[in-house]
Amino acid sequence: MEGVSERGCMTEFWKEHSQHATVEEMMLDSNAQELSQLELPEILELLPPLPGTAVLELGAGIGRYTRHLICRAGHVTAVDFMEKFVEKNREDNGHMGNVEFIQADVTKLDFPEHSFDLIFSNWLLMYLSDQELTSLAEKFLRWLRPGGHLFFRESCFHQSGDSKRDFNPTHYRSPAHYNHLLTSPLLDQSEAAERRCFGFDIVLNKTVQTYVKMKKNQNQLCWLMQKTRRDVVEQHQGGFSTFQEFLDKQQYTRRGILRYEKMFGSGYVSTGGFSTTKEFVEMLDLTAGQRVLDVGCGIGGGDFYMAKTFGVEVLGLDLSSNMVEIAMERAVKEKLPLVQFEVSDATKRRFGDATFDVVYSRDTILHIRDKPELLRKFHVSMSLNKQICFFCEDLWTQSQNSDSWLKPGGKVLISDYCCGEQPWSPAFQDYVKQRGYILYTPQRYGQFLTEVGFRDVFAEDRTEQFIQVIKSELQRAEEMKEEFIQEFSQEDYEAIVSGWKEKLQRCETGDQRWGLFIATRA
């Protein structure tokens, strides 16, 4: 619209699409009723526990989510800048009491510091410019209490709804762009005696499965982020402000991942590739219909293998968005609806009680500092609190504490980098520090599983197998040297071979070990 500011253009767009305050207008889709019915429980399941919390809902529209948030939270502030949407929301949900309705442009909105525990938005940020979004992210950090969460859902890459649009001012960003815009801002709340900086860490980033199933559209994505400390002394390797940034920009760049895949074999970025995957998965006695959680899924080769071979459903988590991006690209080609992927921090992710039959993890937990706490998520079961909301006929089940991700009798299988007894060589100490690894002996690793309550714990030092795998991979690298150099470069080849030889040397000196661990939930 020539001569109209971007914000004015956005206002005109929504005036045109809010005439009747219907769900079809809100979702810009003729099939909105069915889509809404299916996606509501999917989205709500991803939210953190809400009893007694203060929630800010931005872009609330006619209240599709408002009434469900009211049922769960202590208080909801519902904001939209379209008058007809706000009126409809107030008419339908105002009687529920613990809610305030505000008509306002989010770019001009302000609240006192530490006002909310959760900020929730659905299809809002894509209607803001990068500058507006960055400014709003800074406000989010002020408005949220420490440890509070931000949930948002957006259309990425291209339009999803089928409604006719004479003009479309929407910003269809990539997930990586959202990650950058939301995790870059910092809030400095330092005092004289203490430095206190806050930023957003990603808890999860995943596709909305309702759109995948109904429209074969993988471009509807949602995020859950958490306001966390970002003090200089707590920053990760190389000055990166988050561990995910360290992974994506240094340890697991897209090029680096593809180099690893060339060594490990197509689809794999963990020791032994397909051969060790086949060997270890056979130990799980998988049967069709079971659900598997893969913690540190990489680019998904093992997940596709399990789904194809055994007919199991697999959810692959990885904190590296580069890994998940490649996995999702491969998933489109594989056409396997049994396999899903999400960018996720396993230490912060929540699942319902007894969700999975198997937790599977290959060479990933080496990154996690508090391993016992993660293992407790796999095993520990706490009592549930149930709340019934009569206003929205909504049964909501959620626990005050972490539920067990595994079903009773469920299995966990982990392979991981381990270490020998200290003292370590100076070279190994430098390697562990540079990578940010937290390593234990295979024996201690097995004890962790026992201590959190697992039974039938099998803990085995597999370093000799690891050494043989490294040697075979080095031999294969020599055989495909010209192909590797043509695909990457001479420098890449020399770097990867040097890295493998150093890994072999660390194992042969006894500093680096490799362990295999299998256990059963009581």
Automatic annotation (TrEMBL):
The answer to keyword Transferase applying to this record is yes
Origin superkingdom: Eukaryota
Keyword annotations for this protein, in alphabetical order, are: Methyltransferase, Transferase
Record PANTHER family: PHOSPHOETHANOLAMINE METHYLTRANSFERASE, PHOSPHOETHANOLAMINE METHYLTRANSFERASE ISOFORM X1
Q: Does the keyword Transferase apply?
A: yes
Look up the record and give one Gene Ontology term from the biological process aspect: methylation
EC nos: 2.1.1.103
InterPro entries xref list: Methyltranfer_dom, Methyltransf_25, SAM-dependent_MTases_sf
Per the database entry, which stretches of residues form a coiled coil? Answer: none
Naturally occurring in which organism (per UniProt): Danionella cerebrum
* Domain named Methyltransferase: residues: 55-148, 287-418
Q: What reaction is this protein's catalytic activity?
A: N,N-dimethylethanolamine phosphate + S-adenosyl-L-methionine = phosphocholine + S-adenosyl-L-homocysteine + H(+); phosphoethanolamine + S-adenosyl-L-methionine = N-methylethanolamine phosphate + S-adenosyl-L-homocysteine + H(+); N-methylethanolamine phosphate + S-adenosyl-L-methionine = N,N-dimethylethanolamine phosphate + S-adenosyl-L-homocysteine + H(+)
User: So, what pathway does this thing act in?
Assistant: Phospholipid metabolism; phosphatidylcholine biosynthesis; Lipid metabolism
GO MF terms on file?
A: phosphoethanolamine N-methyltransferase activity
The protein's name in its UniProt record: phosphoethanolamine N-methyltransferase
